[in-house]
Amino acid sequence: MSNLTVKRRVMIPMRAGDVMAEFISFDGDDSGKEHIGISFEGKKESNDQLVPLVRLHSECLTGDVFGSGRCDCGEQLDEAIDRINEEGGYILYLRQEGRGIGLYAKLDAYALQDQGYDTYQANEMLHLPEDDRDFGIAADMLKALGVTRIRLLTNNPDKAKQLEEHGINIDKIVPTKVHVHKYNRQYLETKAKRKFHTLTFDLVKD
Ligand SMILES: Nc1nc2c(ncn2[C@@H]2O[C@H](COP(=O)(O)OP(=O)(O)OP(=O)(O)O)[C@@H](O)[C@H]2O)c(=O)[nH]1
Ligand SMILES: [Zn+2]
């Protein structure tokens, strides 16, 4: 049983006021990580019947804030804002930088990748788990918001599996686009090969 409850909801105008989103904080997470929920009302009346579209987005300072080309996080976050603002739903912005190992360790892993190791091997070389994320916290956030049935925007099968194990019903998995370019191709290919992400490489060429 989760102790998570909604603490505060605050409206924030985004993108020069074109997007209105409600930022939501929570009480009861002992990790102190300050995960944040972002709620979008959705634009079309016809969307009223839609099950909320939800993206679990793991923090990536380099990609989300600075537009790093080594991954696809910044582009995926923009895509999630566009789509969820249209259709209504939530972004759960999870403070799980570097798949949970943290920013400094991610930079250490990048240095090892520059020597030829793949993204998962690099974590292992650092004696860190290849993926240290627990999406149970996202299920607790959804329950605190009164949401137990969702459409999930992802290509990562582990996100769906973990949410279902924690009592969230997934009506549909909506694939996120594949934003591939020269610096992140290997990172994306490795996710598809090692973790069975459903990536279709010809979908989008940025
Ligand atoms: N350890 C490590 N983490 C990385 C690396 N590249 C990106 N990341 C992290 O990977 C995470 C990406 O998370 P998400 O965008 O939620 O996506 P995902 O698990 O790939 O699944 P999708 O929902 O399909 O996008 C972020 O926390 C990034 O910081 C890397 O080379 N090493
Ligand atoms: Zn990233």
Automatic annotation (TrEMBL):
Binding site for Zn(2+): C60, C71, C73
Protein name as annotated: GTP cyclohydrolase-2
Cofactor field: Zn(2+)
Cross-referenced SUPFAM superfamilies: RibA-like (SSF142695)
HAMAP family to which the protein is assigned, alphabetical: RibA (MF_00179)
Reactions listed under catalytic activity: GTP + 4 H2O = 2,5-diamino-6-hydroxy-4-(5-phosphoribosylamino)-pyrimidine + formate + 2 phosphate + 3 H(+)
Gene name for this UniProt entry: ribA
Function: Catalyzes the conversion of GTP to 2,5-diamino-6-ribosylamino-4(3H)-pyrimidinone 5'-phosphate (DARP), formate and pyrophosphate.
UniProt-annotated binding residues for GTP: R55, L56, H57, S58, E59, Q76, E97, G98, R99, T119, T154, K159
UniProt key word Metal-binding: yes
Gene3D superfamilies, alphabetized: GTP cyclohydrolase II
Cellular compartments per GO CC: cytosol
Pfam families to which the protein is assigned, alphabetical: GTP_cyclohydro2 (PF00925)
Gene Ontology MF terms: GTP binding; GTP cyclohydrolase II activity; zinc ion binding
Cofactor binding remark: Binds 1 zinc ion per subunit.
Keyword Metal-binding: yes
Annotated ranges, domain GTP cyclohydrolase II: 10-175
Origin organism lineage: Bacteria, Pseudomonadati, Pseudomonadota, Gammaproteobacteria, Oceanospirillales
EC number(s) reported in the record: 3.5.4.25
Organism listed in the record: Marinomonas ushuaiensis DSM 15871
Active site, UniProt feature: D131, R133
Origin superkingdom: Bacteria
Pathway, per record: Cofactor biosynthesis; riboflavin biosynthesis; 5-amino-6-(D-ribitylamino)uracil from GTP: step 1/4
Keywords: GTP-binding, Hydrolase, Metal-binding, Nucleotide-binding, Riboflavin biosynthesis, Zinc
Family according to the record: In the N-terminal section; belongs to the DHBP synthase family.
GO biological process, one term: riboflavin biosynthetic process
